[in-house]
Specification:
alpha+beta; three-stranded antiparallel sheet; 30% strand
Length: 175
Amino acid sequence: MSVYKKIATIGPKFIGKHKIFKYGFNLSPMYSRSTGKIIEVSKDLMDIRIKLPISYKNKNYVNSIFGGSMFSAVDPIPMVQLINLIGDNYVVWDKSAEIYFKKPAKEHLYADFKYTIEELEQIRTRVNQDNEIEIHKTTTLTNKDRTTVYCEVHKKIYVADKLFYKNKRRQKATH
C-alpha cells in the first residue's frame, strides 16, 4: 500500500476526507512540483478547484506558464477523485490524455473537477454490466472568472470491477 493510500485510509478518522485530499495533495512532492495547488474541496469530494499561479518556478522561455506545469497540475485529480468517490470494489487507472493549448497563459490559472451522483451511478451500472469501461473527462484551465480558456486536457480513465480485473491479470500471467 502506498504512503498516499495509507494517509487516505487513516487520516479521515481524525479530520475530514476532503481535508486529507486537499492537504495530502498540496503537501505531496509529486503534486507540489507541478506548482499547482488545490484551493477548494467539497466535503463530498464531488467538486475540487485548483489554482496554478504563474511564478518563476513555472515560466517558460517566453514568460508564459510551461505546458508541463499545466498538465501536471490537472493530471492526477480526476483519477484520484474518482477512486475516492466510487469505492473499493473498483480498479481505476489513467489510460490516456491529450492536451490542447489554446493561448499562452500569462496569469494565474484555475481548473474545476466535478463528478455528479448520476455520473457515478452510471459508471457503476456500466461496470456491473460490462466488467470494465472507459470514461472521458475534460478539464479546462481558465482565468479566475472562467472567461478565458488557456488549455484543455482530455483524459480517458479505465474503470473495472476489482475481481474481474484480478482474474484478467491472472489469466494474462498464465498465458
